[in-house]
Write a structure and sequence with these properties.
Keywords: Aminoacyl-tRNA synthetase, ATP-binding, Coiled coil, Cytoplasm, Ligase, Nucleotide-binding, Protein biosynthesis. It catalyses: tRNA(Sec) + L-serine + ATP = L-seryl-tRNA(Sec) + AMP + diphosphate + H(+); tRNA(Ser) + L-serine + ATP = L-seryl-tRNA(Ser) + AMP + diphosphate + H(+). By secondary structure, this protein is of the alpha+beta class. The chain is 40% helix and 20% strand. The protein has helices at 4-9, 11-20, 26-64, 70-101, 140-146, 152-159, 169-187, 201-207, 232-236, 294-312, 358-363, 388-398, and strands at residues 122-127, 150-151, 165-166, 191-193, 198-200, 225-227, 242-244, 251-260, 279-289, 316-320, 332-340, 345-354, 365-367, 376-377, 379-387, 406-407, 421-422. An 8-stranded mixed β-sheet has the order 1-10-11-12-15-9-8-4. Strands 7-13-14 form a 3-stranded mixed β-sheet.
Length: 425
């Protein structure tokens, strides 16, 4: 959520940045009108309440002196009715104001390039060369079936489309990738966490999934609770409604969880394999930083995501998202994209974003520079480190052999009990 003072004092800049996302800035005018009316009503009711308190004392004195106080009493009844009217109007305004403010996206950083969609994202760097095969390479979904590493049909029977059973060496590889990623992030100073995977609505609101993206979530029937789409939600909310001391900042978290997404609006996209599932595993990085340190932290987190693919020796590239592709709560985002031979293209495997104080304002996450200073909002950052299923897909496709086997990257072999290849039994 944005600071209302920014909307009041720099209205045109806010409108411009909202328009850069392809959104109509008319909502800003609606909010400012509600804010103006709200402040006027608050000032009026405070004045009336002050008047009522003062006159109440006068009435008490008149009654004590056996003087006629009926006119003043009637005036106070009128004042009370007006205060009631104002309170009712304020409740309506406050609800409308809060709803509209919740739908304004974060302000885009000046470095973000303008563009209408992902075709206008800007490539920053590319690492590794796509492999040239001297045989016809298979897609990862065929490799999974041939080596009996996964079962989509039985998952569909149990849970429906876009679910998967990882089986045998497939389950082992999934677990190896998760442990490998967590170990790397631990070495980079992230504190490992195991988090809840069901949260209250207010946690989703704090990180920006609600109210705008409710259709993308799985809600528990008859409960105001949701399964998490990412552990960004649980990790960011760990310090919700807290003020951290100076020596507690920065905060660096990592966690592996299942993630649940309805994939609303994605019908027909990536329907085969591991790329777009309703449930998938992901290792997440989250940081809480002082505002002046958050942009350097964004660059470092991006390097940490890239490093996983560097260690696995899988070709990838990093792109800066344009104004038409960046997420609702982000001020600046890098996507790390991995090479998938089956697509003959790069596919997003991590998004690393600086949310500035957007989430912290919603979640009331603050810090104090010293014991005498006023609390300030922290900046929150998040990024995948990495999406495990997509990493498995990339590994299978890039490390496949002509005989149908898949070589296990050297850095993963200790996590696989020394196993060097995945082969059909």
């Amino acid at each position: 959520m944005l600071d209302i003072k920014v909307l009041r004092n720099d209205t045109e800049t806010v409108k411009k940045k909202v328009a850069q996302r392809g959104l109509e800035p008319v909502l800003i005018d609606d909010i400012l009108q509600l804010d103006k009316e709200r402040r006027a009503l608050i000032a009026e009711t405070e004045e009336l309440k002050s008047r009522r308190n003062k006159v109440s004392q006068e009435i008490a004195v008149k009654k004590k002196n056996k003087e006629d106080a009926e006119d003043v009493i009637k005036e106070m009844r009128d004042v009370g009715e007006r205060i009631k009217e104002i309170d009712e109007r304020l409740n309506t305004i406050q609800s409308d104001y809060h709803d509209k403010m919740s739908r304004i996206p974060n302000l885009i950083h000046d470095d973000v390039p303008e563009g209408k969609d992902d075709s206008e994202n800007v490539e920053i760097r590319r690492t590794g060369e796509p492999r040239s095969f001297d045989f016809e390479p298979k897609a990862h979904w065929d490799i999974l079936e041939d080596l009996e590493l996964a079962d989509f049909d039985r998952a569909a029977k149990v849970s429906g489309a876009r679910f998967v059973y990882h089986t045998g060496d497939g389950a082992r590889l999934e677990r190896a990738l998760m442990n490998f990623m967590l170990d790397v992030h631990n070495k980079n100073g992230y504190r490992e966490m195991m988090t809840p995977q069901i949260v209250r609505a207010e946690a989703m609101y704090a990180t920006g999934q609600l109210p705008k993206f409710g259709e993308d979530l799985f809600k528990i029937e008859d409960e105001e609770m949701y399964t998490i789409p990412t552990s960004e939600v649980t990790l960011t909310n760990f310090h919700k409604d807290e003020t951290l001391a100076a020596d507690q900042v920065p905060v660096k978290f990592t966690a592996q969880t299942a993630c649940f997404r309805s994939e609303a609006g994605s019908a027909g996209r990536d329907t085969r394999g591991l790329i777009r599932l309703h449930q998938f595993n992901k290792v997440e990085m989250v940081r809480l930083e002082r505002p002046e340190d958050s942009w350097a932290a964004l660059e470092e987190m991006t390097e940490h995501a890239e490093n996983i693919l560097n260690l696995l020796d899988i070709p990838h590239r990093t792109v800066l998202l344009c104004t038409g592709d960046i997420g609702f709560g982000s001020s600046k985002t890098y996507d790390v994209e991995v090479w998938l031979p089956s697509y003959n293209d790069y596919k997003e495997i991590s998004s690393i974003s600086n949310m500035t104080d957007f989430q912290a304002r919603r979640g009331n996450i603050k810090f104090k520079r010293d014991k005498d200073s006023r609390p300030e909002l922290l900046h929150t950052l998040n990024g995948s480190g990495l999406a495990v299923g997509r990493t498995m897909a990339a590994l299978l496709e890039n490390y496949q052999n002509e005989d149908g086997s898949v070589t296990v990257p050297e850095v993963l072999q200790p996590y696989m009990g020394g196993q060097e290849k995945l082969e059909r039994l």
